[in-house]
Design a protein that fits this description.
The complex is a heterotrimer of chains A (288), B (158) and C (753). Chain A is α+β, with helices and mostly antiparallel strands and 288 residues long. Chain A is built from twelve helices and 14 strands. Chain A has a five-stranded antiparallel β-sheet with strand order 4-5-10-6-7. A four-stranded antiparallel β-sheet of chain A has the order 11-12-13-14. In chain C, the strands form eight sheets. In chain C, strands 3-7-1-15-12-13-14 form a seven-stranded mixed β-sheet, with helices on both faces. Chain C has a five-stranded mixed β-sheet with strand order 9-19-18-17-10, with helices on both faces. In chain C, a hairpin with a 5-residue loop joins strand 17 and strand 18. The chains are: A alpha+beta (288), B alpha+beta (158), C alpha+beta (753).
């Protein structure tokens, strides 16, 4: 019989996740987990519901940026005006996860740890330079988001570990981010391609830093450093964008599946990178 | 392991029930509590026919464990009308013929009510995206979107 | 009664549907909402293989599991002979329905039912399924229709020999039937043509996508009396099919219709009901069965995908002289694709003197196809209307002009035989040309497509009873599930004839034991045929009311006329008799002869053919191949709209389904023949944000065969959209995609060529 526990502290959760059954799974929003349980794809012995732990439900300003509990819902992120103003791309990405109903439950922690290559919020968090706090039997550690997922359905979390929260750094004074994904419909699809761009301008309008991350075009969301490099030092003009798009396409290693082909994904990744960069650029220019 | 003893408020009434971990809120509403107005169209959160609200948040009842709603307020389609007085959305859906087979209607009304409580003057685009998680195969959505707009206008002038 | 310029009190008004309140409050009971005391749960074991011989099934461990009340396999069902009987829209072979409901000897698709279990608890039933040991001998499978037609293709049925070819083939094949329709001399016609377009097209199978999964409860009593509560498009169909499949007398089987959560043709057959009856019979308990969405996709019918080849030729002035269409439709695991209606409808919109269509019904290892809204017509229209669009471009002609020049009219000989009765196709084209939509400028990357479509519509057997209550109110009882507002239409028509308030007429849907036989809700027949039965029953009541008034007034019935719900002395009668209202006559019924009650059972002919023309604007994203539908207008000859809102709803809903068909819906199979997208996540039906408002124009050319002029309206609107969208995409992008769906990867690949 499947057990269900709802700890109210991180320490309590760590204990529950280690024992009595090692096969206990973390339950946050449940929007992926319950589907997997029902389909029989996931055989868990127990569920540990983290939503009653205050730390995982908190969203507060910190170090000029924001600390976001791993179980905060997409809807709550969308309602946070200050967060949205600073990191519109991250919030847009989180708000693209599923329907309004899914938004009522889906969380950043779940979107990351479900370890789908197509998770919408993950490229945005990576591009933003977010870090996450991981708690477990051997204490807490803080790691860059891009190190958590190691492959489809696989993470670097040790047994008993879970994500407590995310730290989004302060956005640069003239920084802007944007996330775009491609889906065949307008809603309710899994990303066929996702691209996030976060860039910073200097007073002259030249790009001083850029992080680009892609989703659904490789076994994990990835940071494309070459794409960022191709923008730095430029005015993000057409030539720079073309170089960046080429770098993005070169970093794609997608598969053919029911959602798209290799050729399509690779081509569209470049297209979306160009479009997202233009949006990020506009946002950076607006933030003077 | 024994069943979970859950205390909730459903449509304003205190309700207690027993459930297994694997039972979803939808299973309990439909099979244990006789509240069959919430429909199961997919069981995977893709159709919205089981839309309910938990603590005011619109969710798919098929993607919530019944055990999770301990201490929570739940609102279902059965709680939308006040006794025999229909909610403006319900009345306008009837007046505008915004339903055909009617299986998606409870979920859409619950979802639309959540929207109008947040935004009493939504644009067509806002309505369409808010309701994107509520599949309707009969109507092509036209009359549904118009009904939500009209209900909003009725509620604004109320 | 003439149909033109008639004034109606209720017909054509937008009344609140009588079943509305329970549907907006969640009180309406659909298939899965019904429970009985002591009810247990049934579950189905389904084939994991696309094609395999069943060597053995061992159910002993499952039967022994605590809580399991019954296990059934094909051995629990009669082994029916192959026998084709006339159905409503297509013939029915009960052997196929039986073997589809539960596999006998072979499984023919992933998801094919192999065994069923009933247990006290759903979890126990699930556990029991895992204990059933099935030994399979895997066989090569075939999914694609063209591959299935090859001589060396894996054979699904060893006893299937192509019908309709002479001489009879020596070897079995996957081609169940070849059908041909011929008019004039196509070869001679093409020889005269100055412009010819010849193209090949493919369409994918698409699911009806009703939001309510199949569901039923069956209860068999100790004396064999069987009751079934189920959501279907026809309680009499369920009775007929289950009676045949289980050898039960019709009178021992009562089917009570639940509210139906969408069907679109997909609920015109049985899947769970025979299994639930067998399980109940074995367990002695009421058994409830509900499909999961995955089961709906894997085991219930989509409509056929098809491969089509069209050749169409004209004079330089646009006069069509010849047309040919060859189509092969996938039937799924058992014969029965709508290839014949495909052949019949392909050129039905046009007056083409020389035409030929050839159709093939082809089996493959997919779920058995089921009816879907105008079965067979949308695919044929996609091909023909796309070719016509190319022809118009080549001729430099406006596409509406080209259609108007060749439009079928009253008296036009249809390829399939009859001459067209009074129809309103030209009127739809004229309305399209005059619509502001057609004359609105477009921007870059935008295009406008137009396409037309035809559907026969059917009549058939229907019954109605109309009971007058003592207080002057009435109940009208019919035998057709209300799938989209038909109760309101029945009440409107009854109120119109009786001359009383709509609110005083309550429509009810009877079960198989409480109303006369009525063929299922399908073929766009209910408002026409069942409506006709309601009108006749109401006329019967009016006759009786007049007779009662005559009795009260001690005059001849001919001296009483019925107007606006009141008996009047006929003109010329000069005495001082007062008028008698329906309520007054009803109140005195006991003294004038007893209850007043009318009925009608009929087999309605003369269903007026339906035509529609659609306008679609799209914008193509040239960098991603994504198509956005910007504007859509549906113009249709609806005969006479009894309830305009629900007629518009049919037009809008059909268009939306057609848009999904055109752009995104498809079945994706892996190498093993397993469906990869059995859910709403990856079977992409349009969501609210995918569509614009869908404008409607109801053209009314009344059907003389119906007392109010009704034509069926439910099916025509899904016929034009495939081509309307494809033509819009072609005109927006300059690239024509002749293979559906026009999904972004496919369109982008075409754009980048």
């Amino acid at each position: 019989m499947l057990t269900y526990n709802k700890p109210t502290t991180v320490d309590e959760a760590i204990v529950l996740l280690q024992q009595p059954q090692p096969a206990a799974r973390v339950l946050a929003g449940g929007t992926d987990l319950l589907v997997q349980l029902r389909s029989g794809r996931l055989a868990a012995q127990g569920l540990v519901d983290l939503k009653r732990i205050p730390e995982l439900r908190a969203l507060r300003a910190e170090q000029g940026g924001f600390r976001i509990g791993a179980a905060v819902s997409g809807a709550e992120l969308g309602e946070h005006a200050a967060l949205k103003a600073m990191w519109p791309g991250v919030v847009e990405a989180a708000n693209l996860i599923g329907s309004t109903q899914i938004q009522g439950r889906a969380s950043l922690g779940g979107n990351l740890c479900n370890a789908s290559p197509a998770a919408d919020s993950v490229p945005a968090l990576i591009a933003a330079g977010a870090r996450c706090t991981i708690a477990g039997p051997s204490g807490r550690r803080e790691v860059p988001v891009e190190t958590v997922v190691t492959g489809p359905g696989k993470t670097s979390l040790a047994p008993g570990e879970f994500v407590v929260d995310f730290l989004l750094p302060a956005q640069a004074p003239r920084g802007g981010d944007a996330y775009l994904r491609f889906i065949p419909r307008t809603e309710m699809d899994i990303a066929v391609v996702g691209v996030s761009v976060n860039l910073t301008l200097d007073d002259a309008g030249l790009c001083t830093a850029a992080r680009l991350a892609v989703g659904a075009v490789a076994p994990t969301a990835r940071l494309v450093e070459a794409a960022g490099t191709s923008l730095v030092g430029t005015a993000v003009d057409e030539a720079a964008l073309a170089a960046m798009m080429a770098a993005v396409r070169a970093a794609c290693a997608p598969i053919n599946d029911k959602r798209g082909t290799i050729e399509f994904r690779t081509h569209v990744a470049g297209v979306l990178a160009g479009r997202a960069a233009r949006i990020a650029l506009d946002r950076a220019r607006m933030r003077t | 392991m024994s069943k979970h003893h859950i205390s909730t408020t459903i449509n304003g009434e205190p309700v207690e029930f027993l459930c297994d971990t694997a039972q979803t809120l939808l299973d309990v509403l439909r099979d244990e509590l006789g509240l069959t107005g919430s429909k199961e169209g997919c069981g995977s959160g893709d159709c919205g026919a089981c839309s309910v609200r938990v603590e005011g948040r619109l969710v798919c009842a098929c993607l919530v464990l019944a055990a999770e709603v301990d201490g929570c307020e739940v609102e279902t389609i059965e709680g939308v009308a006040q006794g025999n007085v229909l909610h403006p959305l319900q009345q306008v859906f009837l007046d505008e013929a915004a339903l055909q087979c009617g299986i998606c209607t409870p979920g859409i009304i619950v979802a639309a009510k959540a929207l109008l409580e947040k935004n009493l003057d939504p644009t067509e685009e806002e309505i369409r995206f808010w309701l994107a998680g509520n599949l309707c195969r009969c109507t092509g959505y036209d009359k549904i979107v118009r009904a939500v707009q009209k209900a909003a206008s009725v509620m604004r002038s109320a | 009664m003439g149909n033109e310029e008639r004034q109606f009190k209720w017909v054509g008004t937008r009344q609140v549907r009588p079943d509305g309140v329970e549907k907006v409050t969640g009180q309406a009971n659909y298939g899965a909402d019904f429970t009985l005391p002591g009810m247990i749960t049934g579950r189905v074991l389904r084939s994991p293989h696309a094609h395999a011989r069943i060597r053995s099934i061992d159910t002993s461990a499952a039967s022994a599991l605590k809580g399991v009340r019954a296990v059934v396999t094909a051995d629990d069902f009669p082994n029916l002979p192959s026998e084709v009987v006339a159905g409503g829209e297509s013939p029915v072979n009960y052997r196929y329905i039986s073997c589809n409901a539960i596999a006998r000897d072979k499984v023919l698709y992933e998801g094919h039912a192999v065994a069923a279990v009933a247990a006290s608890d759903p979890a126990v039933a699930e556990a029991a399924l895992k204990l059933i040991q099935v030994e399979y001998e895997l066989l090569p499978h075939v999914i694609d229709v063209r591959e299935a037609m090859r001589e060396d293709a894996p054979l699904l049925h060893e006893d299937l020999f192509t019908e309709g070819v002479d001489p009879k083939p020596a070897r079995p094949s996957n081609i169940a039937k070849r059908t041909e329709f011929l008019l004039g001399d196509p070869a001679a016609g093409f020889a005269e043509c100055e412009v010819i377009i010849e193209r090949s097209y493919t369409t994918q199978p698409v699911h009806q996508g009703y939001i309510e999964p199949h569901a039923c409860v069956a209860s068999v009593a100790a004396d064999g009396m069987t009751t079934v509560w189920s959501s279907s498009q026809g309680q009499f169909m369920v009775r007929e099919f289950c009676a045949k499949l289980l050898k039960i007398a019709d009178s021992d089987l009562r089917v009570i219709p639940a509210e139906i959560g969408g069907g679109f043709g997909g609920k015109t057959t049985v899947y769970l009901e025979p299994l639930a009856i067998a399980l109940s019979r074995k367990s002695g308990k009421p058994v409830k069965m509900v499909m999961s969405r995955e089961e709906v996709f894997k085991a219930s019918g989509p409509t056929s995908g098809g491969v089509l080849h069209v050749k169409i030729g004209a004079r330089r002035d646009g006069t069509l002289l010849a047309g040919e269409c060859e189509l092969a439709y996938q039937a799924g695991a058992f014969p029965g694709s709508p290839a014949i209606p495909g052949c019949m409808t392909a050129f039905a919109c046009y007056d083409i003197p020389n035409a030929k269509t050839v159709g093939f019904d082809v089996v493959s290892n997919r779920p058995k196809c089921a009816a879907y809204r105008a079965p067979g017509a949308p695919m044929a229209a996609f091909a023909v209307e796309s070719a016509l669009d190319e022809l118009a471009l080549k001729l430099g002609m406006d596409p509406i002009e080209l259609r108007l020049k060749n439009a079928a009219k009253e008296g036009t000989r249809a390829l399939y035989g009859p001459k067209m009765p009074i129809i309103g196709f030209v009127e739809t084209l004229e309305a399209a040309r005059a619509h502001p939509h057609y004359n609105t400028p477009l921007k870059a990357n935008q295009g406008r497509g137009i396409a037309s479509g035809f559907w026969f519509n059917i009549g058939g057997q229907s019954s109605a009873a109309l009971h007058i209550n003592e207080d002057g109110t009435a109940e009208v009882v019919t035998g057709n599930p209300d799938i989209g507002g038909s109760r309101a239409s029945m009440a409107i028509m009854a109120a119109e004839v009786l001359g009383i308030d709509y609110a005083k007429v309550k429509p009810l849907i009877g079960d198989t034991a409480s109303v006369g036989y009525s063929f299922l809700t399908g073929g766009s027949r209910v408002t026409f045929a069942t409506g006709k039965a309601v009108v006749e029953a109401a006329n019967d009541v009016v006759q009786q009311l007049r007779a009662r008034a005559a009795k009260i007034w001690k005059c001849e019935v001919e001296e009483v006329i019925w107007k606006d719900g009141v008996a009047h002395p006929a003109q010329g009668q000069t005495d001082t008799r007062t008028q008698l209202s329906l309520a007054e006559i009803a109140a005195s019924a006991a003294r004038t002869g007893g209850p007043i009650s009318g009925k009608a059972s009929l087999n309605a002919g003369g269903a007026g053919p339906g035509f529609g023309t659609h306008l679609c604007d799209v914008e193509v994203d040239p960098e991603t191949g994504r198509v956005e539908v910007l504007r859509y207008t549906v113009i249709q000859d609806v005969g006479r709209a009894i309830h305009p809102s629900y007629v518009e709803g049919q037009m809008q809903g059909g268009a939306a389904q057609g848009i999904g068909w055109a752009l995104n819906e498809e079945y994706v199979y892996d190498e093993q023949g397993r469906l990869q997208n059995p859910g709403f996540l990856d079977y992409r039906m349009p969501v609210a944000s995918d569509l614009p408002m869908i404008d409607t124009v109801m053209v009314e050319v009344p059907n003389p065969a119906h007392p109010f002029g009704v034509r069926g309206v439910g099916e025509v609107p899904i016929v034009p959209p495939l081509a309307a969208v494809a033509n819009a995409v072609a005109r927006a992008s300059g690239v024509r995609v002749n293979d559906l769906p026009i999904s972004p990867p496919r369109l982008l690949a075409a754009l980048m060529k």
